[in-house]
Amino acid sequence: MRVGVRVVELGWVEPGAALSAFAGEPWIAFADSGGDAAGERARWSFLCPWPVETLLCRDGGVWRNGEVVSGDVREHLREMRARICGDDISGLPFSGGVIGLASYEAGMRLEGVVSRHRAAGDLTAPELVAASYEEALVFDRLERRVWWVSGRGRGAPDLRVVAGGFGAVPWLSFRADMGRDAWLEAVREVVRFIGAGDIFQANLTMRWQAEVPVGFDDMAAYLALREGSPAPFGAYLRTPGFSLLSASVERFVSMAADGGIETRPIKGTAPSGASEAEAAGFAAALAADEKENAENLMITDLMRNDIGRVCEIGSVSVPQLCGVERFRHLHHLVSCVRGRLRGGLDAVDLLRATLPPGSVTGAPKRRAMEIIDALEGSARGAYCGSVFRIGRDGALDSSVVIRSISLVGRRLLVGAGGGITWLSDPEREYEEMMLKVAPLLDVFSGGC
């Protein structure tokens, strides 16, 4: 007999402070909203310690709870979620389930694209890592309320006892995987592919890396990142040997328990502005920019096609096209695509149909990925993948892993890039990329 989820309201604690109470845990999943809490996308945060089960995929091998297993990864994810106990009567948007990361290489595998780069080992994330959680701290940042939920009756942690002694965030010197001139030539090569009719667009990126000192505190680094770059789809995932620190501004796909799907592709970037008048000028220029609008339109069409693979016929719509939205450091063009999942399918099928995110590949997706792999200097790893959570009720939310930092062993990896179209100017694309990566490198007071 399944029991109900236990729900206990606690005294308000800021999500970042609560995170520090679990500083010594080897597995943590923190879906962390930042920015204006009045917006629904930035209202809720979810912190899950103490996983029930874990799943790791690397080099084609699969480990569940540390043991080598066979079978389809998708079925393992479904089983892990189905084994979460308790009927969800909490009324909260998430009360436990499966939280994980699908890397860019996981998406490549799904699309049948073979990378020339080393896609595992000590330089990239696992292809997929996930854990199931019976417990969650649920933060409503708008009403400043927090609940402890548990499907197995576990008592609430004492959040008044906050772990201390965070390490200082060190100064680090980052090294790029491509020189400036090489990247500019790669942009020109993408434009030549577009001119030849191979593709309409490709998202070209770079990586920066640095070695961290012994005792590096990844949680302290994440708290510094979220302080400087609050984002509606931030995430901190810690697993043995790998951590993700993400300040993503981009939702990938979300699905309600009733099958309603939404994706919000972001393409098109401008500075935020030092004053309201300057911000308004940047926003107006971005809204009128032919290249940026064309870039967003192509990716919106790609996402219509991707979710259409699993949606009811006639249910896909575009209620917002190329709207300008302002974030802490940048303006972006954001579109919205909606649909309804076909009967007999679930959140895992939706992820299978849409990974990797179209906004970080190009169009057509498969050919763009092949060109990207030939021109970029290293494997993307977690960057341009997706953080996802599937709740007890089967609902899904996910983000595109951009504005992110990965810790693999003692190596930090940071990525940035942008969409290249026929109208792209290589110098301008390089400047835009550096604008995006600057807040991440600033966490460590390093340079490019």
TrEMBL record:
It comes from the Bacteria. Residues 181-436 form the Chorismate-utilising enzyme C-terminal domain. Residues 12-147 form the Anthranilate synthase component I N-terminal domain. InterPro entries: ADC_synthase, Anth_synth_I-like, Anth_synth_I_N, Chorismate_C. This is Anthranilate synthase component I family protein. It comes from Acetobacter fallax.
